[in-house]
Amino acid sequence: MSQETKNAPSRNAVLDQTSFLYGSNASYIEDLHADYVRDPASVSPEWRDFFDGLADAPEAITKESEGPSWARTDWPIPENGELVSALDGNWPAVEKALASKIEARAPSVPPEDTRAATLDSIRAIMMIRAYRIRGHLYANLDPLKLEPKEDHAELDYRTYGFTDADLDRPIYIDYVLGLETATLRQILEILERTYCSTIGVEFMHISEPEEKAWIQERIEGIDKGVQFTPEGKKAIFNKLVEGEGFEKFLHVKYTGTKRFGLDGGESLLPALEQIIKRGGNLGVEEIILGMPHRGRLNVLSAVMAKPYAAIFHEFKGGSATPDEVEGSGDVKYHLGASSDREFDGNNVHLSLTANPSHLEAVNPVVIGKVRAKQTLIGDKDRTKVLPVLMHGDAAFAGQGIVAECFGLSGLAGHRAGGTVHFIVNNQIGFTTSPRYSRTSPYPSDVAKMVQAPIFHVNGDDPEAVVYAAKVAIEFRQKFHKDVVIDMFCYRRHGHNEGDEPMFTQPLMYKAIKSHPTTLRLYADRLLAEGLLKDGEPETAVKEFHTYLDEEFSAADSYRANKADWLDGAWAGFETASGDDRRGQTAVAIDRLKDLGAKLTALPDDLEAHRTIRRIMKARASAIEAGEGIDWATAESLAFGTLVTDGYSVRLSGQDSVRGTFSQRHSGIVDQNTEHRYFPLKQIGDGPAHFEVIDSMLSEEAVLGFEYGYTLAEPNTLVLWEAQFGDFVNGAQVLIDQFISSGERKWLRMSGLVMLLPHGYEGQGPEHSSARLERFLQSCAEDNWQVANCTTPANYFHILRRQMHRKFRKPLVLMTPKSLLRHKRAVSTLEEMGPGSSFHRVLWDDAQYKPGSTVTLQPDEKIKRVVICSGKVYYDLLEEREKRGIDDIYLLRLEQFYPFPAKSLIKELSRFLEAEFVWCQEEPKNMGGWNFIEPNIEWVLNHIEAKCRRPHYIGRHATASTATGLASKHVAELNLFLDEAMTIGKYSKAS
Ligand SMILES: Cc1ncc(C[n+]2csc(CCOP(=O)(O)OP(=O)(O)O)c2C)c(N)n1
Ligand SMILES: [Mg+2]
């Protein structure tokens, strides 16, 4: 033993010795570090000194990243390559550290004995580490045992040079497994129980030492097995009785009716109970759940406490809502619910979010709801409101939105303190076996992208499942991160109860047929333990059946007594009605000026970019002058006035802080420090606040999240902004399944605003169209609003209108690009001031705005009325001026839906003798034409105009949204502008 290792090393010497920390031997040191983080006293003094020093001298370690210069090359490296990799190769260093400890414990033993003990120690630690990493591969996870387990050399003690003769020999293991020394037999017993029983934990991919240490500490050790009190076991048993009993009852009463039974996965129910109970102990006050079809009816009843009579009522064709409530309704396995549960004196509010068939699409909605509630109640460390998401194995592995949500989980603008994920891994998706439906070994592998711990667990061991759930919720509450439970189970029947699974999985289903239910297995276990007496399980099953019979009879007379949609944060809101929905959106000029001054003033110590200073100055002078207000200025005035009115504003989208088109500059970056200054965060002295988020580069999850936010918080203006409108179709599921139809299906209002940059400016197929036509096609039953504003003032009003009403409706807004800087697309303060409001239809500027070079003929002399919407209006205006035409009137439709029939009747009645054309820049099969044609026709008939149908002017129908050639773009534009400005001429568009 050299002098160097014998003496307690100086800090520099330790650094020298351990400089491999960032080299190839990080793993062992990581473990030691994890122990140290958990309890500094658990590691030896020299390691303690070393780790103490880490905090202030990281650079001293990183500089040694090449590994130790003294590493021995003649050390006998085991031939088994995997074994070496378990210690990442450089174990001479580990040997050195351990040897010094072993020697310090027994300084008088001969050096060769020390060396032998050190080798034992190293081998044992290598094996322990192998179990931590790969034990789950060997665990007893599959109730059906479909795949034989292969022996794994890394988990065989013989691989490490031990023999049976070593089993009872104490080995120094340096507090790994919580023990200083242990016999090989003890070590194996702990490792088998911890890592290879009915729970298999994957956590060695976590790089945070504290998290890893916590998991090790929580599960490893002599007294750390799954343990439940008799009451706990009975509670688990009773939940299984309910779960199995309900599915069986339905199976008999409604044979072949779709219910997507939980049969085979019943352990989910006691696990959820555990999450609620333990969560309640750890400060959870509210849980928002999201789940797919599988087992939903059982979760609704056994966990959410929805009356069985209510569910039977729905099976019998009854409605889930009171008769007087409108709506299209939804199938019973998509419906939401809410309830309060109390455990150990803690009340936990539960709400299950309604969802469409589209698997996993509800996930961001749930997380967004949670975030909103956390914000509302000031849950700063995000431990009071908890998201719990359940998943099918195939969907979790296959749907990209799952990965997107993991991506959001740690971001400041979107985190919700960690989601507890529960995969009902029945090892099948409809008719497809896992080997065809995913590349990854487990369905849960995607969770590793955020280093979430994953608890694989055998669903036929309900105690293990409940234990995993307990550790999972504890982890989430402590570390505020996502955690996954992957419960291996099976699906007793077909995908739905009408399906024959033997067509596609005969072997699996043969195994299932002879496999006892989870309840039966657990009952036998409790009988064997003496906790249940003979006959008790049967009695419990019978009693529950009798209870269900009573509920079944009560179902006929069951009436849903109230729809819960205007409760809580929604109290005081009403269903939308009436025609005039302008709301009070005007703001006193003084207030606007005062606010404008605050929003454009920059602190003296902020080193803003010169151009930004200039922009802010220009905004300030426009506001001061009361004219020339551009789009971005109007927007910030809208946001600012809302905040001072008491409404929070949350804007999220890719690059939204600056704005895709460099127009917004809501956060001004200090050129020296990169600190961001947000003028809109400086205003308002109440709880209302402004928040702007540069979001992750996702459409689907982010839009879903923001939509979820609006469901829980009606008094915040939530805006989601697409980078370009084209990208919105990446979130199509959220649009079709939730935003456009959620109110009708599920009685849930949303005031979400979608800002979609749209306009044909020659930038090619992918940067022109937000697919206005698709939103228009979905318009019905007053489901949402679709608009395309052309003035900053109208934008100001439409944003404010979202909040200043007694109801909420989503707003789909086409937003400009070139108009952001167009000299004519400006407004005056007066247009936002007293008496002003949003206009669904806007008149010709030549009549109302100063600066036009054309004086229009009186109405009766107007020969053509060009009705249009959006940016093309300014192209038409300029073309008309260029040509000096005075008998063509330009009328703008600012809001497509709800269709402003009244305003159009009024305006078009002015021109009964004129011809009417609709002009758009989008191809004929896109844009507003197909939607607007019958509507304008209706108006023209109504007013008995001479011309009863509008003609089309614009591009012809195309497959691609736009041309990629700038020259072609201009030629197309010139062609239809010419047609629009030539009376009697229309597009010969196909
Ligand atoms: C996005 C989406 N694609 C396809 C379907 C059709 N579908 C319904 S259930 C199902 C299988 C789901 O398998 P899994 O996620 O393992 O859940 P399980 O039914 O096994 O519980 C499929 C493909 C769907 N509902 N959603
Ligand atoms: Mg499945």
Description:
Helix 8 runs parallel beside helix 9, helix 23 (589-600) runs antiparallel to helix 24 (610-625) and helix 25 runs parallel beside helix 30. The chain has 990 residues and is an alpha/beta fold. The longest helix is centred in the N-terminal third of the chain and has 28 residues, at 111-138. The protein has 35 helices and 24 strands. The strands form five sheets. Strands 3-9-10-8-7-4-6-5 form an eight-stranded mixed β-sheet. It is globular and about 110 Å long. A hairpin with a 6-residue loop joins strand 12 and strand 13. It binds thiamine diphosphate and magnesium ion. Magnesium ion (MG) binds at residues 392-394, 426, 428-429.
Keywords:
single chain; 990 residues; alpha/beta; eight-stranded mixed beta sheet; seven-stranded mixed beta sheet; 40% helix; 12% strand; binds thiamine diphosphate; binds magnesium ion
Q: Helical stretch count?
A: 35
| Radius of gyration from CA coordinates | 34 Å
What's the mean pLDDT score?
Answer: 90
In the sheet with the most strands, the strands line up as 3-9-10-8-7-4-6-5
Give the SSE map.
Layout: H1 3-6, H2 11-17, H3 26-38, H4 45-54, H5 58-62, H6 81-86, H7 91-105, H8 111-138, E1 170-172, E2 181-183, H9 184-195, E3 199-202, H10 209-219, H11 230-253, H12 268-281, E4 286-290, H13 296-303, H14 308-315, E5 337-343, E6 346-352, H15 363-377, E7 385-392, H16 393-398, H17 400-408, E8 420-425, H18 434-437, E9 454-458, H19 462-479, E10 483-488, H20 506-513, H21 518-528, H22 536-554, H23 589-600, H24 610-625, H25 631-645, E11 648-653, E12 668-669, E13 676-677, E14 690-694, H26 700-712, E15 716-721, H27 732-739, H28 742-746, E16 753-757, H29 772-777, E17 785-788, H30 792-803, E18 811-815, E19 841-842, H31 845-848, E20 864-868, H32 872-883, E21 888-893, E22 895-897, H33 901-908, E23 915-923, H34 929-942, E24 951-955, H35 966-980
Parallel strand pairs: 4-6, 4-7, 7-8, 8-10, 9-10, 11-14, 11-15, 15-16, 16-18, 17-18, 20-21, 20-23, 23-24
Antiparallel strand pairs: 1-2, 3-9, 5-6, 12-13, 17-22, 19-21
Bound molecules: thiamine diphosphate and magnesium ion.
